[in-house]
Write a structure and sequence with these properties.
Elements: H1 3-9, H2 20-30, H3 33-37, E1 50-55, H4 61-74, H5 83-87, H6 91-100, H7 115-128, E2 134-141, H8 146-155, E3 184-191, H9 193-199, E4 205-214, H10 227-239, E5 249-251, H11 258-272, E6 280-282, H12 285-288, H13 295-309, E7 311-312, E8 334-335, E9 340-347, E10 351-359
Parallel strand pairs: 1-2, 5-6, 5-9
Antiparallel strand pairs: 2-3, 4-10, 7-8, 9-10
Amino acid sequence: MPERTLATKLARGVGRQITEDSLFALVGFLDKAALDDAKFTIDESNRDDVGVLVSTGGGGMTDIEEATITMNEKGWRTVGPFVVPNAMANAVSCQVSIETGARGPVMTSSAACASGHYSIIDGFHFIQRGEADVIIAGGTESAVSLLTMSAFGRMGPLSSRFDDPEHASRPFSVDRDGFVSGEGCCIVILESEESARRRGVPVYAEVLGGRLTADAFHITAPDPEGDGAARALTGALKSANLTPKDIDVIFAHGTGTTLNDSGEAKALKRAFGEAIYDAKVTSIKSMIGHGLGAAGAQSAVAAVCCLREGIVPPTVNYTPDPEIDIPIVGNVAQEVDAKYAIVNAFGFGGQNVVAVFGRVDDY
């Protein structure tokens, strides 16, 4: 979004105080698309029952990087006064709360690339427990910088197809060589069924259940056998009172790294058995890159759109890998009469989150 457009959306001076992560969160929210679409206005009558759970994997890393460069070049007196609060991961949700006036539960989950999806499951649980009627949930990330890209490059998960970026993101393909980093923000409005029916508003889908697990294996590499992810899949299905045969579409984490895609495929086969061949599996990272802390929320929105529109977006740049025996929707979108969808998000450190979404026909 052009900087001049941002200026019209932010309160005077706020843009100088917050990190790009918070900026993305505010852009994703203050364009009013999410709340306007939900036909919801936060005011004195409801603000105590509205929560904010917008998460980020990297927090204010880019802000710290810029401040460090400035300090080294020009001295400590040139460091901005908001570097410390900007470094706090919770600044993301707090800024949204401040701008909107939401005074319910405010929390930021930092779970690497699973962060945004954690927020949706946490928001689902807050509403289930009666701690909020409405949750502004999602993920945001602005981590493309010299430091982070250098670090990712040294670590090894980035694609090396620098001369062909359009075809670099290749989830589940035999010639995949890493992910392509993206940036952005994705916000959803979660609301209790009672509140939504009372207001008579359209509902796009229902969160039916979810499960969080850990690999307890490695700080960056996933369990190669997909054990933690498989347990998350099985637990999510159980919490939604569904079986593998009920699932029509799976929005995979699908990063395009050798380790993730292999382990995720094994997890899907372990959790679904032969039923995996009746589902359709896709990864939108092939088209939009890896949104890191925003990725899970991005996939969740794609899944909801799939349930409503009956179209599964493709995994582009796909060349089948004989070692990955799962039904990938490759290169061309497919029509589907989908009632239930699963969304996977897995983060560095072995954090796994799986959510189950159901189509809503009677609103």
